[in-house]
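INFO  loader      accepted 1 record
INFO  loader      residues=311
INFO  predictor   begin
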Amino acid sequence: MAVRQPLYYNGSNQLQAMSTSMVTEIVTQLVYQYSLSPSVTLSVVSSGGTLGTLTDTRLQAGAQSTSASSTPSEGTTAEPSSVSTNYAKISETRTTLTPTTDTGKTWPAYYNSSNQIQAMTLQDVKDTFLHPAIDLLVSGSTTTEQAGTYHITTSASSSGSVEVSGANTPVFLDTRANTSLYTAGGIPETLDQPTTITNFYLQKITGSNTTYTLPIFVDGSNNLQTYPEATFESLIQEWIKHTAVSSSDGYSISYGYSTGTNRGSGMTDTRLNGSGNYQTRFVGADDYRAQEFPDGSPQTINTYYLKINKS
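INFO  predictor   done
INFO  writer      dumping tokens
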């Protein structure tokens, strides 16, 4: 691993090696450049999302029992059962690109161990800039240092992020039986009467431009020159995007539900844990009814996380 200290022209128009903090500022700028046009993106779809399927479960009432002579016993009345709803609403898209070829003079110059000026190699650039930027992007934080990547929230509005669907569309819903809607006087009650406990939304983190010092490079005539800002930013954007989608060194970004670092809120599937609220209704001389409604306390059945991974 070779982390270099690129050269720059200081205020006295002299060559000087960048400090560690100046190198870090360039790494942060790479993150911002990635956020302007990410190469690994997530979208909210109606169904069939490529990240896979998440399941929400809840209880529903058992079917009613009836008798013409006496109230049906609890033992003969159907128990509440589980209802499942599947959500596959997040898809990943990977956009490959061919970045600028390293000519041997493409990258910033630095002083080598012999105090000679030479251009950084592509491996130097990976070690100094690209891989540290990817490490920032795939961390568990959700700040501007992860700009262009994604996380889950329980609110459609999230400071520093944009809700991906553009229409406040949740990617997962935690629902439970609404016990207040089941009454003995309503037997036979509709079996499935849910209420939404929590909506979960996909958010994309917004970037924030940062200040940094432009390094110098060796031009085609072997002269030292400060990169034009647009040229340098175009170059690093190409390469951070390429690294994120096509790295052969273990720095390619991907998303999923099983492998990687948790991003944002866990998407909980909760369900009532009761064994059934047995209720009866006498309608008339030959009409006796009974039904078991959902009851109990909420328990967490599963917690799903959106995960970001590098590989």
